[in-house]
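Extended Data, panel c. Modelled sequence:
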Amino acid sequence: MIEILNGAKETVSYREHFGIRIYLNREADNYPIHWHTAAEVIMPLENTYSAVVDDTQIVLNPGDILIIPPGELHQLFAPETGRRIIMQFDCTLLYHLNGLDSTFHLLRPYITITPQQGKDLHGALKPLLIELTEEYFSPSLLKEASAYAMLIQFFVILGRNFMGLERRFPHRKNQQQQHKYIDKLLEVCNYINDHCTEEIQVETLAELAGFSKFHFMRLFKQFMGMSYYNYLNEHRIMFAEKLLIDPNLSIIEVAMSSGFGSLPTFNRVFKSYKKCTPSEYKLLHGVHKPLD
């Protein structure tokens, strides 16, 4: 299944398939630790399938869905027999749609959707993934547009579930106020996504949301499940990952370009998120002669 592997980086070949690649995989091969800029969705159809993401082993039963956002190191382990859907797609297809960038962030480092965890959510996503796969392999006219529409619907359903009012603000009964909070906090997330390499003060974000500083900090953590500062750092690390695979950039250049004020801070934060140093990351991703 992996066609192009350079170090640990897989380059997904979409060929003529418009930014989406789906395999009906029957191979009994295991796939070593790797990553790619594509997002990946895996659902076994027959027999189990296993993965390791973020040092966590995941065993998928038939019908279980595993979603791995782009850039996450992972391994895959297949049984001797079985069949599974493996879909990879270019996330930039969806990032221009308001809110979906932040949705992918909520899924990190991975998420599983099983009937036991949520019957309604799984019941909506499983048939949609099967229908998307059937459309992908069909000879139908306009199948590209149809596949895009289903892919968007898949992540809209997922995003609504994770940003649901009752999940994020369970004690606020006024739905109009809840929607206002979510709209404002998504606006803040989009601002951080676009300006993560700049110096961002919490007062600026609070003013953008229209809340006091301390009210904003509390609501953001409740909404995103992390502090605004951790969210900012995660986006800086994601930005740095793209730069680290450039052999022409030194680690200190990457640190400064990613919004970190010093090399020690960058090294410390990077290791806390990625479980390796920036130098080790360069080597792991096929950059064999780091410049620092």
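The radius of gyration is 20 Å. This feature is highlighted in the accompanying rendering.
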